Structure formats: C-alpha cells, structure tokens
Amino acid sequence: MPDTLNGDGQHCTHQNGVHGEVFDSVDDAITAFAAGEFVVVVDNEDRENEGDLVIAAEKCTTEKMAFLIRYSSGYICCPATAQRLRDLELPLMVANSTDKYKTAYAISCDYRFGTTTGISAHDRALTCRKIADVTATKESFARPGHILPLICVDGGVMNRTGHTEASVDLCKLAGMQPAAVIGELMLDDGRMMRRDDCRTFARQHGLLMITIKDLVEYRRKHELCR
Fold it and tell me: Confidence class of residue 49 from pLDDT cuts 50, 70 and 90?
C-alpha cells in the first residue's frame, strides 16, 4: 500500500473495503478539483459499479472536454443544483422517470452564442461553463441541445449517492459554482470501466480517485449541510 502520510505535502491514500482497495483522500481530491483537474469518482459496487470523470463546469475548457469525450461514452452530462436549472428553465425531461436509479435528466441544451452545431468539444465546454455562469440567463440557451443537465437532489450525497450529487458536492466543497461536467469512463472495447479499470486509468493519467462512500463520510464528518 502507498504511504498514507501527509507531513510532506504528498497525496494521502487510504485503504477501503474488504479487499484493501486504495483510494485518494477527499481533501486531496477537493484541492485538485479546485485547481481545474479531473477527479475519478466511483460509486458502490452494488450500485452502478462505474467510474465517472468529473470536473467543475467553470473549469471545463475545450481541451478538457475533448479528453472527457475521448475516454468516456461521449454522453456528457452537466449536474447542477435544482435552483440553477429552474432559473434557466431547464425542467425535468419527463415527469415520471422509470430510470432504475432515478437520475433526474433535465431538458438538453446548447449555449446560443459563440457556438455552431453544439456538438463540438468547444461548443459543449462553453455550454457547460455557461450553465455555471450566474450571469447567463434562460434566454442564453437553445433547447434541445447536446448537453444533458442533471438535477442534483437537495442535500447532495447525504440524500442520494449518485455521481450527480457527488460532482455538485465536490464543487461546493471546492468553493466553486455548483455545476459540474461528468462522463462515464469506457474501455476501448466498449465496456464500461469498473473499479480496477478506473484505478488503472487514474494512475496512467495522474488523476486522483475517490469513492462516493468516502465523500458521504467526509461530509458527515465536516457537517456540510447544503
């Protein structure tokens, strides 16, 4: 197991789970996230058992979006608070979701200015940044579009242990606008990455990896109640 320090400013790691799995600390992940880096976030193995690449929407450049598209399914979502999406008049896609995990998909959208078709990495990154930009208004977005907003439940991971809530909580913990960009990591053969795959990917690309379970424990410990 890697050193679990941290007196010298190095990343902390810890063991979690019956197999002694190694994950990075939530504190280190928050620091990296605030600096505009991706963080790999994995959920419980008895849930989706998948990992998402997560970045703050306000930090999502064209280059970051291209990286996300390359290593994910290309199905890019933008989790945000319910209030922000209400302000933008991006309501639930359907009134009665039959999705297994009750993912709260809102109406898709594109930013209207400085974009073309909406599908390029540039256009999608700009749309996500503008969802996070409080000066952007409902008139700034075309509907439907190529970015799928997701409505975060109030209370975040304390009330729903999904990637939607984990990504918005990371934004809040990092002192950023509560809107993120996420995509599910996928292998070259088309299968979704599981925990071991995600760990290998994170190491290859120098990214930190945390679990939603650890984020719940972190919030419980630090009493983040928003």
Answer: confident
Nearest to 99 by CA among 48, 49, 167: 48
pTM comes to 0.89
Q: Which domain holds residue 95?
A: 23-222
The residue to which tokens 């928003």 are assigned: 226
What pLDDT, in 10s, does the model give residues 134-157? 999 999 999 999 999 999 999 999
For the chain, what is the domain count?
A: 1
Is 146 a residue of the active site?
yes
State both tokens at 88: 């933008």
Catalytic residue among 43, 50, 58, 110: 110
Element (H, E) at 152: strand 141-152
Q: Which of 84, 77, 99 is nearest to 145 (CA)?
A: 77
Evaluate whether residue 97 is within a structural domain.
yes
d(CA 85, CA 78): 10
Q: Is 46 a catalytic residue?
A: no
Residue 195 domain-assigned?
yes
* Catalytic-labelled residue, pool 43, 50, 123, 184: 184
177 within some domain: yes
Residue 12 located in a structural domain: no
